[in-house]
Amino acid sequence: MRFVVPFVLAFAAAVATSAASDDPAVIAIAGPQSPATLSAFGFFDGGAARPSGRLIPYELRTPLFSDYAAKQRFIYVPEGTQIGADADGKLIFPIGSALIKSFGYPAKSGGLNVIETRVLLHQAQGWVALPYVWRADGKDADLRVGGTRVPVTFAHGGNDLSVNYSVPNKNQCKQCHSAAGNIMPIGPVWQNMAFPRPADARTIVKAVPALARLQPYPKWDDSRTGSLDDRARQYLKVNCGHCHAPQGSASNSGLFLDGSATGAAALGVGKRPVAAGRASGDLDFIIAPGQPDQSILIKRMESTDPGIAMPELGRSTVHEEGVELLRQWIAAMPSNTH
User: Measuring CA to CA, how many Å separate 210 from each of 1, 80, 217, 325?
Assistant: First the structure.
């Protein structure tokens, strides 16, 4: 079942009239070649700190952990089109749309030092993911299909933390955004979204009234929004569920963290790994109820070894706060759960 919203303006018509359009994004998204610079889309007015008024900013109640990077998220939809949604609250974007996400760290002089901006473009043939790295002067960003690494030092918890920040290559973007072999958005689910501009939320709800009945998901780090179990599951769903899903790249593991698990084993409780090896060490279960130190899940999330660490991509350090939440969750499980 889907709440389908008809497009007021078909994408083909938008392309046909793009020569008369003053919106460069229409041409850049539809073009056969990936633009060499981010400025070609017109998403920003001369720098990451100046997003175009055409963009819809949004935030996530529980975000994906990426080496403590701060993120700025935006939606672009072509003029005359609307955002729809399915029955689960996953937003449906018309062809010609883009999801834009900038990553950065607080600058010593104030503000945010943006390193990269990733764009997910909804073209006629499907979604395309592209990473753009900002230049030192902050005036434009260049396409880096091969990815890159940027050493960063920033303040966290009263100390300086250094990471070798990774800009993903195009294939790595595909790995995380893959569902049944196709690139798809993974973040914009209505119950996990918040809009700084209330009018943007009202516009989407007006197009899809059923969204107003969906309850917000808990915030992983706010006990007022949900139980320990609810918050831990939401953390795993956001950070692991895009791969550990029936149609995700880790579907052969039999471990489903996207919310689809119908039994304890599919959630990892009392479940032995499909392939034992160095990543499992001498531990038996993905989640050993009541025993976080005996759980493979914790071992892998506390590791930065490329052959052991989970998630495999997007981090070079340990999310201490997130792991602590999962430790508490596992410790609270009755030891006879499996």
Answer: 12, 21, 16, 32
User: Residue 192 has which token pair?
Assistant: 């996990």
Would you state the pLDDT for residue 173? 67
pLDDT at 177: 65
d(CA 150, CA 20): 40
Q: Which of 121, 138, 157, 155 is nearest to 33 (CA)?
A: 121
Q: pTM for this structure? A: 0.87
Q: Cα separation of 92 and 30, whole Å? A: 18
Residues 277-299 have pLDDT tens digits of 777 878 999 999 999 999 999 99
Amino acid residing at 153: T
- Residue written as token pair 């130190």: 293
pLDDT at 159: 87
SS (H, E, C) 150-177: EEEEEEECCEEEEEEEEECCHHHHHHHC
CB atoms under 10 Å from CB of 183, counted, come to: 19
Q: How far apart are CA 66 and CA 317, in angstroms?
A: 9
Q: Following CA atoms 111, 189, 252, 239 in sequence, which dihedral angle do they give, to the nearest 10 degrees?
A: 30
Percent of the chain exceeding pLDDT 70 equals 90
Buried b (16+ CB within 10 A) or exposed e, 35-54: beebbbbbbbeeebeebbee
| SS3 label, residue 234 | helix
